[in-house]
Amino acid sequence: MTVQWQEQVSLKPYNTFGIDVKARYFSQAQDDQQVRQALSQAHQQGLPVLVIGGGSNLLLTRDIDALVLHMASRGRRVLSDDGERIVVEAEAGEPWHPFVQWTLAQGYCGLENLSLIPGTVGAAPMQNVGAYGVEIKDVFAGLTALDRETGELREFGLADCAFGYRDSVFKRNPGRWLILRVRFALSHSLQAHLDYGPVRQRLTEQGATEPTAQAISDAICSIRREKLPDPAELGNAGSFFKNPVVSAAQVERIRAHYPGVVAYPQAEGQVKLAAGWLIEQAGWKGRREGDAGVHRLQSLVLVNYGQASGAQMHALAQRIQADILERFGVELEMEPNLY
Ligand code: FAD
Ligand code: NAP
């Protein structure tokens, strides 16, 4: 069987920045067989393959001289339920937020803080997606990936994934592993994580003193909708920079000049700085250069007002990085994957 590829396809609908570059070839994979077929055909033709999900963590700076393989596999299932712990599995192409809502509708707790993150299940382990104090490593039960070097299937447990802050073994070895399906360990009883940002306050305002997982999800969705631009209306890839983790001594040096610096203590005496705060202090919030800009409400989010190219977005990001380094002595690392 030969999988049909389209030629010279615009990737604008396939990346949330809305960058208009072309893929030399484009194809979708709905199951493992189509994945293998596409990889094998590309291999025979000596073509590289770029796997994408929802395109919500990409910055495309040029035409992609490769086969772009869009993961469109669907399926979610309960693998086990012992009355307390439930293991669910979802295919890589499942859209993330509807999957989270499905788990909540079944009464399964654990993914509520990760509501309204765009993208797919298969990409979530790439950067150990996290929000409001929860990361997928906290509910991770395993995944199945295809080793693109050997063509063999491999099962990954928690330790194998080397999850870190917006990081994993998959992110550190780009193109090596194609994630086919992911498993999550959820619970019938709620362990609420409310002490992050305005979550508790929002629930209190709504009179939810003992909130359900669905109520937490709803509160987080409402906070996110107020603060973050909807990619359907304004192109963006969420947080553009990771929050830098620096030494306590460096924070004290910054605090001497900026007493209001926003910093969160981490393990081993390290401190996480809010990158958005640094960018705002440096005067970038709401700034616009052509169609590339910094969002007016959340300075960690770079936005495409319409016609910005990936190179223009990248150039703006590099100017911000240079400015933050000069002012604060802090290096900002990009979060989206650059192609
Ligand atoms: P893509 O952008 O399609 O791909 C990302 C990377 O993963 C690429 O390198 C791609 O090659 C690779 N990849 C994709 N699928 C696979 C696969 N099946 N196997 C192997 N590699 C694969 N992130 C957070 O962590 N927390 C947030 O709260 C959050 N909020 C966001 C809010 C907005 C408005 C936006 C636009 C983004 C946000 N993000 C957030 C970033 C992004 O949504 C997540 O990182 C998401 O998991 C990316 O999924 P995707 O399917 O869109 O990946
Ligand atoms: P926020 O609530 O304004 O907080 C600003 C920053 O401070 C966040 O980046 C967060 O770090 C950190 N923070 C807040 N409370 C904290 C606490 N109690 N302990 C440690 N760190 C704390 O952030 P926001 O921009 O509205 O985003 C809310 C959540 O959604 C955050 O967790 C954020 O990571 C996530 N989010 C991620 C993306 C993305 O693309 N990656 C996009 C939108 C939102 P952390 O980022 O390290 O959590």
From TrEMBL:
Record's keyword annotation contains Nucleotide-binding: no
Source domain of life: Bacteria
InterPro entries: FAD-bd_PCMH, FAD-bd_PCMH-like_sf, FAD-bd_PCMH_sub1, FAD-bd_PCMH_sub2, MurB, MurB_C, MurB_C_sf, Oxid_FAD_bind_N
Domain FAD-binding PCMH-type residues, every copy: 18-189
Pfam families per record: FAD_binding_4, MurB_C
Catalytic activity: UDP-N-acetyl-alpha-D-muramate + NADP(+) = UDP-N-acetyl-3-O-(1-carboxyvinyl)-alpha-D-glucosamine + NADPH + H(+)
Functional pathway: Cell wall biogenesis; peptidoglycan biosynthesis
Transmembrane stretches, start-end: none
Protein name per Swiss-Prot or TrEMBL: UDP-N-acetylenolpyruvoylglucosamine reductase
Provenance organism: Pseudomonas sp. JNBP 7332
